[in-house]
Predict the structure.
Amino acid sequence: MNLSDYFENTKGTGVLATSDSKGNVDIAIYAQPHVIDETTVAFIMNERLSYRNITSNPKAAYLFLEDTPGYNGKRLYLTKTKEETDVDLINSMRRKPNKYEESDLKKYLVYFSVDKIRPLVGE
């Protein structure tokens, strides 16, 4: 199953881990990524700690825990490649409104290359 099919057909919870240039780590709940192609994903990000971290350190990891019994899912190892601030583009990519979003914060569509994919547990 390719990444696009996987994230379109699998329910679960995602966590994005980032760190700044000094190695200070942050983790945050994130929606499933927008799969651009098999080697590129994107996230809509607010101007908060996760976004600030990837501006100083482009490496991130995304953990996805499937909503199934046991520990099934994927770990994506990512490197930021570019970002967009086009509001129309960002709004067109939204799957649904985010009730936790702070509307006064600037939004970014941040693209990442998928460097490695591992199962949630083991290898």
